[in-house]
Structure formats: C-alpha cells, structure tokens
Amino acid sequence: MTELQKKIAKDLLSIRAVFFRPDEPFVWASGIKSPVYCDNRLTLTAPAVRTDVETGLAETIRREYPEAEVLMGTSTAGIAHAAITAHLMGLPMGYVRSGAKDHGRQNQIEGRLEQGQKVVVVEDLISTGGSVIEVVNVLREAGAEVLGIVSIFTYGMEKGLKRLADANVKNVSLTNFDVIAEIAAQENYIRREDVARLVAFRNNPSDESWIGAKK
Questions:
Q1: Average pLDDT over residues 188-213
Q2: Distance separating alpha carbons of residues 167 and 171, to the nearest angstrom
Q3: In whole angstroms, what is the distance from residue 83 CA to residue 23 CA?
Q4: Is the CB of residue 47 less than 8 Å from the CB of residue 90?
Q5: What pLDDT is attached to residue 106?
Q6: Is the pTM of this model over 0.85?
Q7: Per-residue model confidence (pLDDT) at position 23
Q8: What is the mean pLDDT of the chain?
Q9: Residue 87 has pLDDT above 70, yes or no
Q10: Which of 19, 168, 193, 213 is least enclosed by beta carbons within 10 angstroms?
Q11: What backbone torsions phi and psi does residue 27 show, to the nearest 5 degrees?
C-alpha cells in the first residue's frame, strides 16, 4: 500500500465517493450485486480532492508512460480528468465516444489524433474492464500506439484483469479495492468484519454468499 494509494482512498472516503452497503447491495447495470459503489464524478466538485486526483494522475503518467504524447479520456467519466491532467502536463487531449456520432463528421474519437501517436487512456474506474478495452481498440484501429491506461480506482476483479491481459494493455490505478476496504475499516466507515465480505465479493462476484454472511 503506497502513500498515494492511501491518500486517494482517504480522499474518496472523505467526500463519500465510495458507498458501502454489504447488507443491502447495489445492483450494477450488468446485474452484479455489489456491496460497494464508487462515484468518482464527485471528485470534480471537491477542489482539494480533485487536485490530489489530477496531480496523482499526472505523476503516474510521467512515471509509467514517459513517452505519452496525448491523453484520451473515456466517455463520459474520463473526459474531465483527461482534460485537467493534460492541462497540468501541457499535453493535447481528446476523448472517445461510446459510438460514432450519427451527424456531422460522425466522429467516435474527438480531438486531433495523428497516426502513430503515443496515447494514454484516462478512465475513472475499472471493474470488469469491458468499456475501457473498447476505447483502447478504437484508438488502436485509428493508428494510435496505446501505451496504457491510468485510472482513479480499480476493483481488481479477475475478469477485468484477464481482459486487460488479453488486450495486452497495462493499467495503473491511483488506488484500489483492497486499499479502500482497509482504510474504510481503519477509519470506521465499515466494520472490520465486513472487510472479508467485501473481498469475497471482489474475488467471486457470482457467489452471493457474502450477502447473507454472519454480521
């Protein structure tokens, strides 16, 4: 657990960007029942936390992807983070739509992207990894060299990790599920005994036995 991972975890918890309901789980669009819901959009309305996040993203890109020439945000959650981080780094940015427009130039990639440019994708969070891999594929098809992904938070689910590996793309997150769970227990956002239930969900989302686990 690095100092940056702890700082971002504490930031997200402090603004209630992470919600815990192990006894009344959230239902994701995919149908997965989850004891955790992370809304990183709330960082945009918390200036101090926003500064930590964007500074952390910029530092991570400089360290992990020093050859980056342009940042591309995912639509829609990654757009603002890509824009602010690109501004801090003095880099161009754009974003990738979930589908091509049905009017105008019918773009799916917004912003100028040259053949062979070295791109870093900026995402807010990664769970199963499907949407961010689609963005990577669109950029590759357009001729970009995708160096990797930076994200604020990752669940570290096996399905997501496998998809990233299969797509041969690296992701570096500012913080992750395990750090969030540990810090949440330390600072009494959740009970210590709930950490095991959270980890059980992350390790096997299809096994819902954690929902009825002894409290």
A1: 90
A2: 11
A3: 37
A4: no
A5: 58
A6: yes
A7: 87
A8: 93
A9: yes
A10: 168
A11: -115, 120
Q: Would you state the pLDDT for residue 166?
A: 97
Q: How large is the greatest C-alpha to C-alpha distance in the chain, in angstroms?
A: 57
Phi and psi torsions of 122, nearest 5°: -110, 120
Rounded (5°) CA angle 10-44-140: 100
**What secondary structure, in 3-state letters, does the chain show?**
CCHHHHHHHHHHHHCCCEEECCCCCEECCCCCEECEEECHHHHHHCHHHHHHHHHHHHHHHHHHCCCCCEEEEECCCCHHHHHHHHHHHCCCEEEECCCCCCCCCCCCEECCCCCCCEEEEEEEEECCCHHHHHHHHHHHHCCCEEEEEEEEEECCCHHHHHHHHHCCCCEEEEEEHHHHHHHHHHCCCCCCCHHHHHHHHHHCCCCHHHHHCCC
Instruction: Give the number of residues written for the chain.
Output: 215
